Amino acid sequence: MIKTLKEEIRQRLLSQYGNLLSKETLDKPELEAAMKSILDQVIQLRSIDIPEVERKKIVVEMVNELTGFGPLEGVMKDPEITEVMINGHNKIFVEKHGKKVLSEIKFDDEQQLRVFIYKLLAPTRRRVDESFPFVDISLKDGSRVNIIIPPLALDGITVTIRKFLASIQKIEDLIQAQTLDKRMADFLVACIRAKINIIFSGATGAGKTTTLAVLSGYIDSSERIITIEDTAELHLNQDHVVRLETRAMNIESRGEVTIRDLFINSLRMRPSRIILGEIRSTEALDMLQAMCSGHSGSLAVLHANSPTEVIYRLETMVLTSGVALTLDSIHRQINAAVHLIIQQELISDGTRKITHITQINGIKDDGIVLEDIFNYEIDDVGIDGKVNGRFKATGVIPKFYPLFAKKGINLSKDIFTEG
Hints:
Blueprint lengths: L1 H15 L1 H4 L6 H19 L5 H16 L5 H5 L3 E7 L4 E5 L2 E4 L7 H12 L12 E5 L5 E5 L9 E5 L8 H6 L5 H12 L4 E5 L5 H9 L8 E5 L11 E5 L13 H8 L6 E4 L6 H10 L6 E5 L3 H13 L7 H11 L2 E7 L5 E13 L2 E15 L5 E7 L7 H6 L13
Helix pairs in contact: 1-3, 3-4, 10-11, 11-13, 12-13
């Protein structure tokens, strides 16, 4: 009976107190009063008798459900769980140590799940309904959330939460997590300080945005940093940070503001650094031109499976920009603009590794020349599934190495010694 009672309370809460749920910060006393009022209505309507102690318990449980993460409270606090995937109210998968498993956690019903997503959306000024059946948002802690609802999601409301890893804040944390080794870490920190233009590449879930966020922490606090994202998730500790976020079109198909719009505007904002949350489309050309015209130290994320694919994707995105450019011209732009590609992968044992640190070093035979400075080589896979490998220097000294000395950065050439 209690389960049915809670279901009806949720339905009435959504219909009668939608304005309360849409507030950026939920007022707990106001929420308790609303819950008590609805509970009294349901009890009177059904002519049932529930002791006062039990009534208070129901109100407290449902308020806690709305002011926390409800059934997900435990997994959201578990530092070993990196992703939560809700496939309908009764099927929830979690990713732990890189492995996805079906959990025993369930929402009571779809109504409880709907209340949960109302709570997630409340502080974001975004919505999800029949007009906008999917949405990306960022939680206050930096976790990323995608929500898609029926009729697009055939099996019910689907929510994907990629948790922000509070345990990874500094380059030492990435070394501890075996994402890279000390030599690579020293090199990348030097690159950030020398204002090298870098693209962070990898598949979804490879950890590239986390690596970008960590390295961004080594940008000098005197610099004006502008971040541009579809869904704001980068939280930098420097004082002089301007965060820009795209806007979807409204119900009249107007008012859309794209990554490209924000990027073009950012060039008028006197940036010392521009950080692009993700390059997806025609903004690739604007970014390359900005890098070539003095906006050094730019950082960007791009989805690709290898450094070579980064070049292919940049070519394609520039060609779709509507500007008549030959492939040779595009290659010259890329060669002049981008110094370094950091390729990151989710390895089969669940660890995340930087597999290539690759420089762009000129044009040869009508193609971009790519040279690995560091890479990760897999030796074997143990019977327990653990991947055994090692980070290696290739012996290549980056063409921009003289920039370190010009910027007053002391980085020994010894770290590039092969092996």
